[in-house]
Amino acid sequence: MKQKLINLAAVILTFFNIKCNSLFYYPSKEVFYAPETNNIEYREIFLNVNESERICAWVFPVENSIGTIVQFHGNAQNMSSHYLSVLWLQEHGFEIVAFDYRGYGCSDGEAKKENARADGFTLVNHVLKQNKKPLYLYGQSLGGIVLQETLLQLREDQKREISGVILEGTFSSYQKIANVKMSESWLTWPFQWLAYILVSDTGAPNEDLSKLTSNRFLVVHGDQDPVVPFVLGQEIFEKLGSPNKQFLSIKNGKHIDAFHREFGKYRPDLLQFLKPSR
User: Would you say residue 19 has pLDDT above 50?
Assistant: First the structure.
């Protein structure tokens, strides 16, 4: 009887371990919106992350650009379904760089936390070496926590080369967001506390956000976000150590729709944040 209970407990823990960790990554290899079929100019680059794996990035150039914006996309699909959400910034003079974490799109390897944070670091290092104009980093949803982790890996002199950081609809603790998502289902609600046991926060920015003192930040969150609760965006803002930070609350805003709702009502707020680069 005792052995049966132990076996049952092991099965339950395994199930919820899979359930918790599958919350974060829904990669796809499908090309959703190919730039060439929409007559969008771009170039594709590959960066080595180790001896056998590469990540893929798309660069959307602008003639006489006034700056570069790197997009860290969310947890589903891949960059081919996300780049369009920031492409409007080209009209305002910004070159756009989108990339896929390992396991996504045209990148090699497996989608997991340690890979994503290493991939963000690799990409930003590359852009810092190539870029001569103001550089902005823009993280959306899961991409926001990957961006925070990337910043914490950079040297102080590298951080000072970044003109600003935008964090939209994101979070800073894997355990907290896993707890939230488990609380939303009747099946997992009684076990939501397991998120703090089964999900690792190793490497998560969370309390280390106070160390980010060198950059300008714009934290954006919809007050009706059904995916990442508004309070998690507020927590990021409060924990950031930078004295130069702004919080943009989107009234009735959903998940990462801030700059596409109400006919672009909030776009001037982002453009104002980007204004120092002009």
Answer: no
Give CA–CA dist 177/21, Å, rounded. Answer: 11
Torsion of CA 182, 185, 188, 194, to 10 degrees: 10
CB contact at 8 A, 277 and 136: yes
Alpha helices in the chain (DSSP H): 2-21, 113-130, 142-153, 156-159, 174-182, 195-198, 230-239, 267-274
What is the 3-state composition of the chain as percent helix, strand, coil, each rounded to the nearest 5?
45, 20, 40
CA dist list (Å): 87 to 11, 35, 60, 259: 46, 11, 8, 11
**pLDDT tens digit string along 120-161?**
999 999 999 998 899 999 999 999 999 999 999 999 999 999
In the 8-state DSSP scheme, what is residue 107?
Answer: -
* Domains delineated in the chain: 2-277 (3.40.50.1820)
Tell me the pLDDT tens digit for each residue of 179-225: 988 887 767 767 777 888 888 898 899 999 999 999 999 999 999 99
Residue 273, number of CB atoms within 10 A of its CB:
20
For residue 123, give the nearest of 61, 51, 46 by alpha carbon.
Answer: 46
